[in-house]
Design brief:
The chain is mostly helical. It contains 5 helices and 2 strands; from the N terminus they run H-E-H-H-H-H-E.
């Protein structure tokens, strides 16, 4: 799966050097798992909400990730969904939305422009 359009839309403002590569590796692992489980998905634009739900409900359990690692993968999944241009309703339906008001502003952003596709 070619993830270059996804990576182009991600902006890691002020994030320390290993963190952006970790996000990219996690996104690549999740997309690879989706492509293995759902062979008809060959491009990132074909990822649907059911695929993300499968990652959260089944794949995380199979990987035996500890809670901090799962939180890192959930954050990367949130970035993937935003980079795909999906609505914020997806995030709330998958329980990836913000927990509450306040907190620090995020350092990782997704470019909203479609010129990167």
């Amino acid at each position: 799966m070619n993830l270059t359009p996804i990576y182009r839309r991600l902006r890691f403002n002020g994030l320390a050097p290993p963190a952006p590569e970790r996000h990219k590796r996690r996104i690549a692992r999740m997309c690879e798992a989706i492509q293995t489980r759902f062979p008809d998905v060959s491009r990132p634009e074909q990822i649907r909400q059911k695929h993300c739900r499968w990652l959260l409900q089944v794949w995380f359990g199979q990987q035996n990730y500890k809670p901090p690692t799962q939180a890192d993968y959930r954050h990367s999944l949130r970035l993937l969904i935003q980079a795909l241009g999906r609505s914020d309703a997806w995030l709330s339906q998958l329980d990836l939305g913000p927990v509450g008001p306040g907190g620090r502003p995020p350092t990782t952003r997704v470019v909203r422009s479609k010129k990167y596709w």
